[in-house]
Amino acid sequence: MKTIYLAGGCFWGVQKFFDQFQGVISTQAGYANGPDQAPSYQDVCASSGHAETVKIVYDEDVISLTEILNYYFMVIDPLSVNKQGGDMGIQYRTGIYYTEESQIPEIEAVYRQQEEKAGAGLAVEKGPIVNFFSAEEYHQKYLDKNPGGYCHIPGKYFSLQG
Fold first, then answer.
1. Which residue from 106, 104, 103, 122 is spatially nearest to 114, judged by alpha carbons?
2. Distance (Å, rounded) from C-alpha 12 to C-alpha 38?
3. In order of start, what are the domains of the chain with their CATH numbers?
4. Cβ distance 13 to 143 under 8 Å?
5. pLDDT tens sequence across 98-125
6. Most buried among 19, 50, 71, 78, using CB within 10 Å?
7. What is the pTM of this model?
8. What DSSP assignment string belongs to 28-89?
9. Which of the residues are catalytic?
């Protein structure tokens, strides 16, 4: 199993989106790449420096990192700085945070392809995961618990597979 961390705006939709794919073993909503102290949701909303991020554990024999990243770019605006949909603030920044150096070539290849497609430099951070703190339980699988909850990702994207 491999792990990648993706920040793509509000983590509710990012988690629900990736839960649908074969080969995604588990997802967890949390806060990443801010100060080393575990934040609360209120801290994050008050600009603690953490990004709302989803930890994705996947089976690379079923789904490749390239596929995961291509799906990721389907549901974010890669040119937007600290904003996705109606959500604004540093916690809504976009980022690809790897766990192994071996993931870098795939990340770089997809990133270059997306830059060419956009015709501009991307506002998506890329680098190693520095820290990750699980979000409060009520945030886990939030849109499953609250089907009418707000999400910047269009609903049609939640049923691409099965």
1. 122
2. 19
3. 2-155 (3.30.1060.10)
4. yes
5. 999 999 999 999 999 999 999 999 999 9
6. 50
7. 0.97
8. EEEEESS-SSPPPHHHHHTT-S-EEEEEEEE-TTTS-HHHHHHHHHHSS-TT-SSEETTEES
9. 10
